[in-house]
Amino acid sequence: QSAKVRVEERPAKTPNASVNAPTDTSPTRRARPQQGDQTHKEDRRRSQQKDQSHSEERRRPQHDDRKRRRRLEEHRDERHTLKKLPTSESSRLSPRNSDLVNANRERVGSLPPSPRPRKSPVRAERKKPASSVAVSSLGQEIERCASVPVQASNVRRQKALVSAMPSPVDDREAGSDEPVAVVSSVDAVRQSESQYEDYFRWQDGEDRLQTIELHLPASGATESYSLLMPKSFDRESESRDEYLPVNDLISTVRAIALYLVDSSDFRHKVCGDKENGILRQLERARNRLNGRDFVGAVHEFNRLLDLERVSSNIGPVFDKSHIPSDLAIHIVEQTYNRVVAPTVNMLRQYKAFSNNVYGEILPTLVSEFIERAGISHDTTFIDLGCGIGNVVLQVAAQTGCFSCGIEIMKVPARFARRQAQEFEQRMRLYKLNHGAVQVWQGDFCESTDVQRMLPRADVVLVNNYAFDSALNQTLLQMFLDLKEGTKIISLKPFVTPDHKISARNIYSPESILTVRRYQYWSQCVSWTDSGGEYFVQTVDRSRLNEFLAQRGML
Predict the structure, then answer these.
(1) What's the Cα-to-Cα distance from 526 to each of 363, 460, 530, rounded to whole Å?
(2) Which of 134, 246, 263, 427 has the fewest CB atoms within 10 Å, i.e. is most exposed?
(3) Model confidence, pTM
(4) pLDDT, tens digit (0-9, with 9 covering 90-100), for 434-447
(5) Burial of 124 by CB count in 10 Å (0-12 exposed, 13-18 middle, 19+ buried)?
(6) What percent of the chain has pLDDT over 90?
């Protein structure tokens, strides 16, 4: 009965009340007003109006500041536009428009100056050179780009230096007597002149010369050589990335005397013996840091070369179809030191442990490749992954054959094209012929140029030292287009030496290849000082045809 009484004392539920809503009959809690209560509506409306007024007060200052900034930006843009408008433009306007422009000038001129956005120093000064810019203006371009402030990043500064190097198109024939402008030694040093210092010690009262002219075999051709050296240069161990102009000049004098002047008297005066001769004077002055004697020996060499030019003794002393390897390597390294060495750090921007890892095959090993593969002037050579193009240039110079290459990365491909241009110009200065050179930028697996050249190729070079197995298999499929007898030089084998043809592999590309292994020694590649091995594969379908004929499948 008591439970029944408690149930009866509960208040009745309203129709809109929640079933599970708790009830509280304590006198201290205010009862919820009903939905139609007018008092509750008025309180809610007053609360909303109050909140809205507060929010408008908070937004009003920010809105006014935004409008004021937008107005100032419009005035600043108008000021900048009117200042750039030339007088001749305003004179061609109608009277009404002219008055409007003058009124705007007066109004804008009365505004306080506003700071203009600061541009990047490299982007503000960098200008893409036209193809018609002469190579002789390279010094001015390099001086402009070398003035980039120090706070600019090294990569952007190096890109500015690379983009400043012009790409002229010269259609003169090889061996022409017309002087050709090239990237000189002075231009190469000027790209990083702050990192160089005087090589020689000059006595008091002597002129501190920093450049000197060296005469070259072509008529009227000279090159300016710098007499500076890198501040970090180590006389005990010279780095290939550090360019030393004094050594370059001495090597040029030796190459001209030995190979490019057909006169025994001239050769004796220049080369002489261990005690006499211009070469010995240059080396002695270099070792003693005597600038006066060095300059005097260079002037004497120029005088003797001019006399031989008058006597028409300028010309190679070797078979023109095959340039000595020492001379070809000297010209290729001159090209490298002027085009690549000043900004060589850009070549290190690649993804590690990928197919794009960069490495160079050095000239000594390239000369061995030429001998092993029997490359001659009627050979077609292609380098798949040519990098900066050193191998392509050396093969073209040393053998006179058609030499081409392709590189997928943009920076090395750009260097390769510029090296090809500098190489062609420099060969003219020495009055030497060379094979045609062509360099492409792209993926050799998809390039139409490669697909067109592979069936004609006699020698194919692939530096596949860092290639993965998938890329090597793709190359194997491409080698099916090669003609009989084509040689493939690689640093990793495409077929094992003990490969045997069987019924299971008669359709695999390895069955048309024979391979031989060779060793190379230290200082042959750029990524290691130790030796290694390379492989020469030859396309030979005779073994496969014999296997098929024995089983009646041919």
Answers:
(1) 11, 20, 10
(2) 134
(3) 0.67
(4) 999 999 999 999 99
(5) exposed
(6) 44
In this prediction, residues 56-69 reach a mean pLDDT of 59
Angle subtended at Cα 332 by Cα 331 and Cα 333, rounded to the nearest 5 degrees:
90
The confidence score (pLDDT) of residue 76 equals 59
CB crowding 161-196: b at 16 or more within 10 Å, else e: bbbbbbebeeeeeeeeeeebbbbbbbbbbbbbeeeb
pLDDT above 80: residue 239: no
b/e burial code for range 342-381 (CB count within 10 A of at least 16 → b):
bbbebbeeeeeeeeeebebbbbebbbbbbeebebeeebbb
DSSP helix/strand/coil, 366: helix
Q: Residue 260 has what DSSP assignment?
A: I
What is the C-alpha to C-alpha distance for residues 319 and 377, in angstroms, rounded to an integer? 12
Using CA atoms, how far apart are residues 422 and 427, in angstroms rounded to an integer?
9
Question: Among 212-226, 289-303, 351-365, 396-410, where is mean pLDDT lowest?
Answer: 351-365
How big, in percent rounded to 5, are the helix, strand and coil portions of the chain? 50, 10, 40
Amino acid at 104: N
User: What is the spatial distance between Cα 481 and Cα 489, in angstroms, rounded to a whole number?
Assistant: 16
Task: Using alpha carbons, select from 144, 185, 193, 190 the residue that is nearest to residue 164.
Answer: 144
Cα separation, 252 vs 214, whole angstroms: 9
For residue 545, the tally of other CB atoms under 10 A from its CB is: 13
Chain mean position to CA 328: 23
Q: Is the pLDDT of residue 341 over 80?
A: yes
The residue type of 520 is: Y
